[in-house]
Amino acid sequence: MKQLWNWKNYQIAWQVEATDNNSEIAIVLIHGFGACKDHWRFNQKYLSSIAPCYALDLVGFGESSQPNSQLVYEKKTPENFSYCFDNWSQQVYDFCNEIVKKPVLLIGNSIGGVIALNTSKKLSTKCLSIVLIDCAQRTMDDKRLPEQSLLMRFLRPVIKTLVRQRLFSSNIFKNAANPNFIEKILKVAYPSGNNIDKELIELLFQPTQGKGASEAFRGFINLFDDYLAPDLLNQLDNRVHLIWGEKDPWEPVKEARKWYQNFECIKSLDVISNAGHCPHDEMPEKVNPILKKIIQEAI
Fold first, then answer.
1. Which of 3, 115, 164, 224 has its CA 20 to 30 A from that of 83?
2. Full-model pTM
């Protein structure tokens, strides 16, 4: 059942599944860009058999508030929100302290993975473990510019100028915010085609109809200098586990394999055959048992 939490005068939608409320730990699910708490539709109830399992909508997504975006060079106002990893991580950190009130295991998909890593730093020993599901690699970040082609490096100032403009970003968003386009994107993200259904299209489409929906999009596409997962992994003592879709079209599994080899904090890597960017929803029958094993070992 959906509940609302007032955070810094923003309304945050969240839900919990709990079979055993006496559990000493809890699980917190963090969705990716453009998704929402219901993207864990095949996982939350299953995981709640081990411990209370929470899912929340990040500011700008799902049924949470969608305030105007605040870019770094713009004049700050109390009503605007800087869509960045520090602010989203602060939201999850405060949620863990004010709503969950137990040591947590964080599970994040895509940008939710970066948020989980950054939140775990703040939580310190209150975070038992982190699971990254196809964590965002953020190839367009300025810190990764040397990896880009000469053409992309040349065009970077033009791209930055364009995406700052509300008219430009809102038009792109408007063209993307329709069921047909969402279905096309899902067919890329879910290469097996599993679980691309009306329910999924609707739960992704509905939030795009909110008055401020395009603002989270504008804020995110202007994140050219923010956290990269490897930088955060370098600073972590917490145990990290990777789950990755073998055919992720956006976050190559070869990078995950590199992380697994290079970072001591990463304890496991499970690659899901034929799955894409969201294996937890595309192939929950394969991902859920892996998650259950990780959680049980962390307890």
1. 3
2. 0.95
